[in-house]
Amino acid sequence: MATGHFQPCRLGLHSVVPCWKRLQHPLNCNSPFVFVPSRQFLSVGTSVTPDLMKTAGTTSVLLVEDSALEARLVERLLDRAGPGLFCVTHVMTLTKALLVLCQPDIDVVLLDLNLPDSTGLETLRSVLARNPRLPIVVLTGADETVGIQAMREGAQDYIPKDQLRAPLLGRSLRYAMERYRSSLDLRESNESLSLVISSAADAIITKDLLGIITTWNPAAEKLFGYSVEEALGKPLLMLVPPDRVKEEGDILARIAKGERVEHFEAVRTRKDGRLVQVDLTISPIRDKEGRITGASKIARDITERKLAEDMLRQQASLLDQAFDAVIVWEGDGAITFWNHGAERMYGYTKEEATGRVGHDLLHTAALEGLEAVFKILATEGKWEGELTQSKRDGKRIAVESRMV
Q1: C-alpha distances out from residue 236 to 36, 169, 248, 265, Å
Q2: pTM
């Protein structure tokens, strides 16, 4: 029976667990089972009553403790910690605990590691194997080493039995549940981040402050040719041409100071020896204390873009040297390119002409009118004919013009 202000709770279909025979693996929650009509029942606790469900807003605690005296002490302490807030189901063996862990209503497990049918950390491992999605607080003896090891293996907290007090016990259970929820949120966040990184079109690489690669996504593999197995644990300098090693050192020095490096254009070496031009954005990585532990690097292949820019520069150079006047303007008429031929023909320097509206600057006129010229240019994509324009000295000249 429940003591004090305890809320009696019910787990699953019954407040006490009926004996059943499973078709396979009797202690596997996922295996099918059938109930065998029987009057035999396994007792599962001192605070469970047959006809009452767990009250909304209470915390359902599975207490696994082989001592009835210590179990009653825990119940009284929880009652003092929060009257009516905790609903306790008590079992005395690991075998019975594993049966109850199949039920969906447990919020937290309070676990004594030394039971009649299991001892030590193996008890914790068995509970985690049965239901890894429950927060666990371990009850230990005076040696806290076991508790620390239990937390390393998956428990959320531990309490030495000689330190059991009502506020500490209630706070520990609530902390364990909150810590577990936070760990789930963090795990989901990390999984989402991993998915984003793995599906990103840009290469994403992380490295420590010594320049050793710690993360290498599929886009990095595609860009540089190294598989993730070949890249992890290797120095990032394997991607840096010998004449640019200092460049990488300078970047690491800036990262160590907390600086962010944005859109840094660099040349890197692929596995096959070919050079690739990349746009790099590098940011410091900090631990939870704010210390810088490494850097994340996003690399975008700009080789084709740089080739296109080089080609445009070459074409612009050729146009600049052309004898004829070559003028380029935006949709609003503002001049963006003015070659040497235009300087010779009209008398304005490149600096004077760039940014001015060309037809206003040159007082352009056409026999059929400029509106007609622009209409033909818009519909046909080109226009050829004669224009009348003014030079810088005011002299009007006739110009054979081709617009595209």
Answers
A1: 64, 49, 9, 16
A2: 0.43
